[in-house]
Amino acid sequence: MKRGPSPFNIASVVLGLAFLYAPIVILVVYSFNASRLVTVWGGFSTRWYVALFQDAQMLDAVWVTLRVGVLSATLATVLGTLAAVALVRGGFRGRTALAGGVYATLVMPEVILGLSLLLLFVAAGLPRGFWTVTLSHSTLTLAYATVVVQARLATFDRNLEEAAQDLGCPPWKAFALVTLPGIAPAVAAAWMLAFTLSLDDLVIASFTSGPGATTLPMRLYSQVRLGVDPKINAVSTLLIGLVATGVIAVYLTQQRRRGRGGPGK
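Above: the chain sequence. Below: its structure as tokens.
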């Protein structure tokens, strides 16, 4: 007879989920708080969302963050996919060195990485600003994108690509028409992970940003040091909704592909 989960296991799961998600739920609830005191409930209101959209500096930080996130995630995903192909299928001598260089950022402290990038940009004479933050975030998220795509590519049936080549497809075209659609869910997941990490980064952006390139985490951190503004709850709730929408969209896309019997099945 199959027994259900024990009360201890149920309690452990509930407490674990509460520990992870209760702060997020509280933040979302208090973003609709009418009171200026973030710890005192003053009734339901959307006044802080209205105030948020009237805060030019906060909106500018959101816009910079989204642009940096999209560009850096796209660059990291493209380079990460190419690196994954080289690591899975390449037999060259420098493969181990390439893998070590790519994976180094996974274990390297962000403070060290941010300082190293700062010294690089100074030595190269590049003015710190939007593009230095974008390149830095691409460097940070490249390894994560590579790991995600590599895991899917390692289990991909290469016979499908070889069959396309036997039918006359050049290698690059066979990869684009056969392999890439097959690993598309992993590529999308890698992009979402890179985008989320870019949205979250504070340390590296603090080292590599300049005038006109203040990201949202930097703006929030500077404001929290002076006191918690209720608008922070509002903008955080919007970001949570944005990321959750992206994750759900990727999940539904993968489920639809599996339901149709596509390559992701």
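The longest helix spans residues 56-89.
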